[in-house]
Amino acid sequence: MNRIILHIDANCFFASVETAYNPSLIGFPVAVTGDAQARHGIILTANYIAKRTFGIKTGETIISAKSKCPKLITIKSNPKKYLRHSSLLRQILSDYSNNVEPFGCDEAWVDITDIAKDFKTAKEIAEEISLRVKRELHITVSIGVSFCKVFAKFGSGYKKPDAITVITPDNYRKIVWPCDCSQLIYVGPATKTKLKARGVFTIGDIARTPPEKLKTWLGKNGLLIHSFATGDDLSLVRRTYSKPPPKSIGNSTTANRDLVCIDDVKRIFFVLADSVARRLREKSLCANKISIWLRRCDLSSFTHGAILRADTDVAFEIADTAMRLFCECYDLSTDKPLRSIGITASDISAYTPNPQISLFADDFVRTRRRALELAMDSIRSQYGYYSICRASLLADKSLTHFDPKSENVLHPVGDFNAVRPSA
Ligand SMILES: [Mg+2]
Q1: What confidence category does residue 338 fall into, taking pLDDT thresholds of 50, 70 and 90?
Q2: Residue 107 C-alpha to ligand 1 middle, in angstroms?
Q3: CA of 103 to the centre of ligand 1 (A)
Q4: What are 343's strand-pairing partners?
Q5: What is the strand order of the sheet 43-46 is part of?
Q6: Cα 273 to the chain's mean position, in Å?
Q7: Does residue 420 have a pLDDT over 50?
């Protein structure tokens, strides 16, 4: 049976991450550089405007790049940021497969044979991944979809940026073979020169050359690239080290004004509970403990939590519990206004569906609420976070119009760790 493998490659990764953090860079030539003072003053990544309009190349000196484009915005590289984005990208990919094999910090193979019955479905999955990366990480990726790792990687490099290329057993001769041999993985400049000298220019030329000949010219590597060119690459996508489930999942926010009444708190708790519940459901987890975190306008803060009667991944229940906890410990008519609030779900375990609907009214309501929230999940995954919300949240959009999950992503070092991802 054919395997189906994706290769995902983030476009101009470092420069794109910088732009994700600072959207005012959009539309300008941007390059991320090594440390000039530490004598590493070279271009590490440039965005497409810098590369395509001004011909700036990875590895050239900052001085040379600036001579081509005096208005080039240079940013000293910030590896922590890129590693964080890299692991967030991997988290998205691991929603689709246990077999995610990173290749550098901005590329990975994902084996989706189990969930894609054919290349059409595989392309739809690739489109979903591409959209999620855009929405959640604010960067773009190119994706190759194929039946082996080598052609999947070829596909991600075939069209860039923000593109998907499907290479099947039926079309690889047409798409891959006419391309220059150096576009095949492991064909570096030295190999290319040797091949050229013997009249081998394209990937198709490699495929049509008898493997023994390639072996005499290039040694074992000759056999390897022959198998790559013919699509006979059988290497597996490495299985991801299975991570233990997170200990907690939480979201919090600093409101755009101090919260002065219980309705303010209730509205924000609903937004946060929605996000926490959605993240639990995405990972097929549920929680047995809910805690709230409150920070007053004088910056003092505290938490208060409770064990639940039953595990939950339902936002209604999380929000209700948060409100109950709030009423137990805080009174806005006498206590100070609040600056920030948060909800954390902990005591986490795997979600186990209960096929028997009990006759208790509680369980009936809960099943319906969960179904409603699942429907919201699917609408949001298709049309974006803001495509649907609870009507009660429209009352004060200035307070509630934010997506805790993407805020979580884009401001990793928010003040008071409010947006620290706990999953
Ligand atoms: Mg890349």
Answers
A1: very high
A2: 6
A3: 10
A4: 251, 292
A5: 43-46, 30-33, 73-76
A6: 22
A7: no
Supply the pTM of this predicted model.
0.58
Distance CA 211, CA 229 (A): 11
Q: How far is the CA of 154 from the centre of ligand 1 (A)?
A: 12
Fold of 5-12+82-170: Alpha-Beta Plaits (3.30.70)
- Measured CA angle at 325 (ends 303, 338), to 5 deg: 60
- Give the position of tokens 């597996």: 236
Tokens of 108: 């990975």
> Around Cβ 68, how many Cβ atoms within 10 Å?
15
Q: Which CATH number fits domain 177-229: 1.10.150.20, 3.30.1330.60, 1.10.287.1700, 3.100.10.20?
A: 1.10.150.20
Residue 351 alpha carbon to ligand 1 centre in Å: 36
Helix 315-329, helix 262-282: angle, nearest 10: 140
Annotated catalytic residues are 107
Q: What is the pLDDT of residues 2-35, one digit of tens each?
A: 899 999 999 999 999 999 999 999 999 999 998 7
